[in-house]
Amino acid sequence: MLALLTSPEYAIFSMALVVMLGIGTIEAIGLGLGHLDVDADVDGNVGSDSLLGWLGLKTGLPVLIWLTAFLGCFTLIGFAIQQIATAVAGVPLHWSIAGGAGLIIGVISNAYVSSGLARLMPEYESTVIDTDDLIMRRATVLEGVSQRGHPARAKVVDQHGQAHYVMVEPHHDSDIIAQGESALLVRRAGPTFFIQPDSDTILRPL
């Protein structure tokens, strides 16, 4: 069996299986990579939305769960293709032919699998937020000192009680926010949020 899985005709599917199991293990031991904030700025045209929806990426599932489902589909379909080819022709297909067919059928199959998983796990759909939804929420600086040009890592909790870790700089050039202090997120530029200390949020304009 091991010789079969490591043969050139099956190797691409075996590698996909190993990656899938690795992602599953990371999730199982609680590292929480499936909840990383993925801030991908995609042009909001109809073509992009349709493609993402067709791939199953607009279901609200975390990206790593979607990827795990895709790898599972690709692996199972690839093994099935090679087994059928062996039964019919006596030998498996070349890995590139089987891999191409497995990729196409796997993408199509995963669109349905992702939709099914999203229905089974509605909490993912209800707690997905846009990054800009964190603005006007309070964050606590966890590491370092936040000053202009030198962002620090901070923790902010969204309306669903989920923690997000972001990089923050003061909104005003003269402000310095030390570790352990809280501040209000007032705007965002790319991956960096700008904050105003709680001590003078009322006193100074944004």
Polypeptide structure, described:
The protein has six helices and seven strands; from the N terminus they run ααααααβββββββ. By secondary structure, the chain is of the alpha+beta class. α2 packs antiparallel against α4 and α2 packs parallel to α5 (95-120). The strands form two sheets. Strands 1-3-4-7-6 form a five-stranded mixed beta barrel. It has a two-stranded antiparallel sheet with strand order 2-5. It has two domains: 2-127, no CATH class; 131-200, OB fold (Dihydrolipoamide Acetyltransferase, E2P) (Beta Barrel), CATH 2.40.50. It holds the Pfam family YqiJ_N. Residues 134-194 form the Inner membrane protein YqiJ OB-fold domain.
Q: Layout of SSEs?
A:
Elements: H1 2-5, H2 8-28, H3 46-55, H4 63-89, H5 95-120, H6 122-127, E1 138-143, E2 146-147, E3 152-157, E4 163-170, E5 176-177, E6 182-189, E7 192-197
Parallel strand pairs: 4-7
Antiparallel strand pairs: 1-3, 1-6, 2-5, 3-4, 6-7
Quick description:
The chain is α+β, with helices and mostly antiparallel strands and 206 residues long.
Order of helices and strands: HHHHHHEEEEEEE
From the structure provided, what is the oligomeric state, counting identical versus distinct chains? single chain
Radius of gyration over all CA atoms, rounded: 23 Å
Largest pleated sheet:
5 strands, mixed, barrel
Q: Keywords for this structure?
A:
single chain; 206 residues; alpha+beta; OB fold (Dihydrolipoamide Acetyltransferase, E2P); 2 domains; five-stranded mixed barrel; transmembrane; DUF1449 family protein
